[in-house]
Amino acid sequence: MNLYPFKFNAILKERIWGGTKLKEVLNKEATGETIGESWELSDVKGESSVVAKGALKGKTLQELSETFQEELLGSKVYETFGTKFPLLIKYIDAQKDLSIQVHPNDALAKERHNSFGKTEMWYVMQADEGAKLMVGFNQEVTKEQYQEHLENNTLTQILNFEPVKKGDVFFLPTGRIHAIGGGILLAEIQQTSDITYRIYDWNRVDANGNSRELHTALALDAIDYSYYKNYKTNYQELPNQITNLVDCPYFTTNLLPFIGELSLNHHDKDSFVIYLCVKGNVTLSTETYEEQLKQGETLLLPACIKNIKVMAKEASELLEVYIK
Fold first, then answer.
1. Of 191, 175, 197, which is closest to residue 120 (Cα–Cα)?
2. Cα(2)–Cα(131) distance, integer angstroms
3. Which residue among 32, 161, 182, 245 is buried most deeply as judged by most CB within 10 Å?
4. What is the DSSP string of 99-157?
């Protein structure tokens, strides 16, 4: 069978901090008032994405990986990860602040959870006035000083809060403490892992007065206590040109802002390519298949498809993601 560009059914997740932007801004078929996440492309155990249309409609991403292997994934990706799809793609709507958290690296995650670690990145799609993210520390901190602040309920004094706007990019290597603030809609690209250590949850309780579980002890050895002067990724957006945002061993992410028609060639890649439409409305076409991608939609281009055309009648933006 000839593979084609895949769209998948969104997996919507209700969260205590979620809102209505996934429904109202990205047109997700959500019914709840606290939908926090739309998992666009997932091979997390028990949460494998399902193909939305075409000849392979109804097949899971796991089934595609097992059936088509190098054709879908690329030979180097298949060699490294086998049939486990290595990336998890989400849109996140934080109506309220998320918990402050950290993710373990590959070695720690393997030892403790038999899982990958969780390096990730954020691309801010929309932010309410005054919205902030929390990334890293605002000063040099030792493990002992961190514990002292945690015990004294003064942790926020040593954390770095960043006002954000549309287009802001943050790279979050494992170990970097972080939290999405209320009023932010973003795209998240990450390793396939659902391992999160929750450090601080703003003393929140649920309707029954229960606090969410914290992972204080587990987080201690996972945190990078270093201080960095700049946590935001600086880049210059150029129309109708591909701009690199993040280049790490786990994924490469580029931004493509354009209007009109462009031909893209992937002969230099031995990997699938993922496209997230973060603005506008785009038509993607191969020799045999055409697919429309609206804001908030995601498409998986199999590794065996090397040429694709993209066309937009209005100013649009794509995130392009693959593994080097």
1. 191
2. 45
3. 245
4. PEEE---HHHHHHHHSS----EEEEEEEE-TT-EEEEEESS---HHHHHHHHHTT-GGG
Locate 278 and state its tokens.
């973060």
**Residue owning tokens 């075409």:** 54
Which of these, 41, 165, 180, 174, lies nearest to 99 by C-alpha position?
180
Residue 270 one-letter amino acid: D
For 62, what's the count of Cα atoms within 13 Å in the CB-facing half-sphere?
9
- As a whole number of angstroms, the distance between CA 153 and CA 92 comes to 27
Q: What are the backbone angles phi and psi of residue 168, rounded to the nearest 5°?
A: -70, 145
Q: Which residues are CB-neighbours of 248 under 8 A, at least 6 positions away?
A: 119, 171, 173
Q: Is 80 helix (H, G, I), strand (E, B) or coil?
A: helix
Determine how many CB atoms are found less than 10 A away from the CB of residue 67: 14
Task: Return d(Cα 243, Cα 84) in angstroms, integer.
Answer: 28
CB 147 within 8 Å of CB 193: no
Sign of CA dihedral 19, 170, 190, 252: positive
Cα Rg, the chain, nearest whole Å: 20
Mean pLDDT of the chain: 95
CB 286 within 8 A of CB 222: no
Among residues 235, 220, 316, the alpha carbon closest in space to that of 275 is found at 316
Rounded Cα–Cα distance for residues 43 and 90 (Å):
12
Active-site residue set: 198
CA distances from 151 to 200, 206, 216, 222, 226 (A): 11, 22, 10, 18, 20
pLDDT confidence bin for 201, thresholds 50/70/90:
very high
Average pLDDT over residues 29-41: 94
Model confidence pLDDT, tens digit, residues 213-227: 999 999 999 999 999
Question: For the segment 300-324, what is each residue's pLDDT rounded down to a tens digit?
Answer: 999 999 999 999 999 999 999 999 9
